[in-house]
Amino acid sequence: MKLFDRLLHHDDLQAQFWRTDFPILKTRVQGKPLVYLDNAATTQKPLAVIEAESEYYGNYNANVHRGVHALSARATEAYEDARAKVQRFVNAASSDEIVFVRGTTEAINLVAQSYGRSRLQAGDEIILSQMEHHSNIVPWQMLCQQTGARLRIIPVNDQGELQLGIYEALLNERTRLVAVTHVSNALGTINPVKSIVELAHRRGVPVLLDGAQAIAHVPVDVQALDCDFYAFSAHKLYGPTGVGVLYGKMALLEAMPAYQGGGDMIRSVSFEETTYNTVPYKFEAGTPNIAGVIGLGVAVDYVGSIGFEALVSHEQALLSYATPLLADVPGLRIIGNAREKTGILSFVLEGVHPHDIGTILDGEGVAIRAGHHCTMPLMERFGVAATARASFALYNTRLEADALVAAVYKVREVFKP
User: Which residues contact 355 (CB under 8 A, 6 or more apart)?
Assistant: First the structure.
């Protein structure tokens, strides 16, 4: 490669342009420029999202759906406009299939307690995978305790890929639901979810996809996937914390009982009987995170303005650049080498605890995550208690990947035998 080409790549001109939208990236940590590589935990927010929330609170703060005054009307319009934006973003058939919740965790709990508890009984089975986040394990365990159902687990191979042959064998006449992650938060593996859905549907089994880690890194089309439920959080899509989305096919949502009571989920209430609202409001009890939903709508606009073709191309190039550099570090082992993966590099370094790696990297201004990443069964599968995890987003650059690798070499110096 010519020197000019290398310099052009290292400048990452497009990413540098995107970076100007994120005020926090000007921060210095320990006197050094912030290198933020903890995007799998939460992404940073563009100024447009920050300003949208501020504008709501500063200019038209009011409750939605319940007021006849001008502020309430404006807030309601912005809130429902965000629902329509999310519908288009994931290509749902109707905006009524978009339910606003607090995040992926609440979305999964909603399905478990509303859909699952009303249908499952002793002897029924739920299929999960070995790479699930705790938020897609614990709600189903709770459901199994309530109903007498049991979990069946799709194993992961040494590369961090689901073993689809075993999954197909697990499907049987007792299977009532499949709940799997679209993208692994600990490995970056992109699962073949379309095939997973097709195999389940051959037996009439509905599928929930945990899209928390996918939504900002791969295009999602719920109609093309034909999934029955899709859950994700705004804060991993450059949006606010405390808000998320449950997509569900309308026929399923309409048949499901209410999850929580109060507020917008009612049509009428007497001491003798309550009549529930229509979908999606049936599942949106109480005053919602109005500012967060509006911010999510702006985040969707922001990602849409970039486009997934450019976003995916940049992140994949960055992953291809960083992977061999990190793998060349003596004593370092990357956990998760799937053929299809997003920009996540989880690794262990011989003789060094991941928390020590994270601490030393923080001293270099490099922010990563260290721990089990809420995937303790997956950590056990790979024989480790924890990993250090660097995760990329659209605003990261090759120079930041270089900074990561240089900081890991410094860890080796500190802990050299």
Answer: 370, 371, 386
Domains and CATH numbers, the chain: 3-45+307-414 (3.90.1150.10), 50-305 (3.40.640.10)
- Helix runs in 307-368, H state only: 308-327, 354-363
Q: How far lies 28's CA from each of 14, 24, 43, 76, in Å?
A: 22, 9, 17, 39
Q: Which residues pair with 177 in a beta bridge?
A: 126
CA 37 to chain CA centroid, Å, is: 15
Instruction: Please give the model's pTM, rounded to 2 decimal places.
Output: 0.96
Nearest CA to 228 out of 254, 209, 255, 203 is that of 209
| CA dihedral (100, 101, 103, 109) positive or negative | negative
pLDDT by position in tens, the chain (length 417)? 333 344 445 458 889 999 999 999 999 998 999 999 999 999 999 999 999 999 999 999 999 998 889 999 999 999 999 999 999 999 999 999 999 999 999 999 999 999 999 999 999 999 999 999 999 999 999 999 999 999 999 999 999 999 999 999 999 999 999 999 999 999 999 999 999 999 999 999 999 999 999 999 999 999 999 999 999 999 999 999 999 999 999 999 999 999 999 888 888 888 999 999 999 999 999 999 999 999 999 999 999 999 999 999 999 999 999 999 999 999 999 999 999 999 999 999 999 999 999 999 999 999 999 999 999 999 999 999 999 999 999 999 999 999 999 999 999 999 986
Name the residues annotated as catalytic: 374
Measuring CA to CA, how many Å separate 290 from each of 68, 85, 183, 232, 239? Answer: 17, 15, 28, 17, 13
Q: Is 106 within 8 Å of 285 (Cβ atoms)?
A: no
Using alpha carbons, select from 356, 339, 353, 344 the residue that is nearest to residue 384.
353
Q: Is the dihedral of CA 111, 184, 137, 285 positive or negative?
A: negative
Phi and psi at 257, nearest 5°, equal -70, 160
187: CB partners within 8 A, 6+ apart: 131, 160, 335, 336, 338, 341, 344, 346, 378
